[in-house]
Amino acid sequence: MSQGNTCQSTEFAFCQVNASVALALALAVLCDLLQQWDQLVPGLPILLGWLLGESDDPQYLMQSPHQGEDDYIFEKSEVNFWAETLTFVRYLCWQLFHLPCQSGQPYPHSQLCHLQTIASEKRHLVSELFRELPLSAEFLKTVEYTRLRIQEERSLAVLRLLAFLEGKEVLRAEDCPREWRQLMAPRTEASC
């Protein structure tokens, strides 16, 4: 199938994008498909689980920095080793903040309570682990410090999303990454 035929038969135009844009678009398409297929209610706890992180094991937070390296989609240098995780968390969080607004269905309370418990426990554990780090860790940006900061961002994002679902929190402009504001602007095929 030629590029021209594909552009006519799908909503997607062929254009080269960087890894960040590809990740953002993939999450947007996933969330859109969940809505189209009316699977948002069963899908939300799964997406929140992705946002929180897969491991419920506290030892995961202190594992060696290169364990699980094969889990990353794009190649990493030392400078951007953690960038993909943070980008994923921020983009998924932004998508999830906008999904509840578009769904009028109730969400599974028991699953969301379970996720809230896990997120609260991880947040508490991260706080304790931060206190155990030497004072210089924040300034040296050690691997342990960075890993804890990422987990802190993940757990806070889940807690904020759950509060948002309960109507306790309102979406603010700061919740939207700058890249997303650019992505969501109307585009034409010529702009690729």
How would you describe what is shown here?
This protein has 192 residues and is mainly α. The protein has one domain (3-191). The protein is 60% helix and 0% strand. It is built from eight helices and no strands. It has helices at residues 3-9, 19-36, 40-52, 83-102, 109-132, 137-140, 143-165, 178-183. α3 (40-52) packs parallel to α5. It is flat. The model is unreliable at 1-9, 64-70 and 179-192 (pLDDT under 50). One of its GO terms (cellular component) is cytosol. This is Thyroid adenoma-associated protein-like. It comes from Cricetulus griseus (Chinese hamster).
How do you describe this structure in short?
The chain has helices at 3-9, 19-36, 40-52, 83-102, 109-132, 137-140, 143-165, 178-183. The protein has 192 residues and is an all-alpha fold.
Topology:
Elements: H1 3-9, H2 19-36, H3 40-52, H4 83-102, H5 109-132, H6 137-140, H7 143-165, H8 178-183
Helix pairs in contact: 2-4, 3-4, 3-5, 3-7, 4-7, 5-7
Protein name: Thyroid adenoma-associated protein-like
InterPro entries: tRNA_methyltransferase_THADA
Organism: Cricetulus griseus (Chinese hamster)
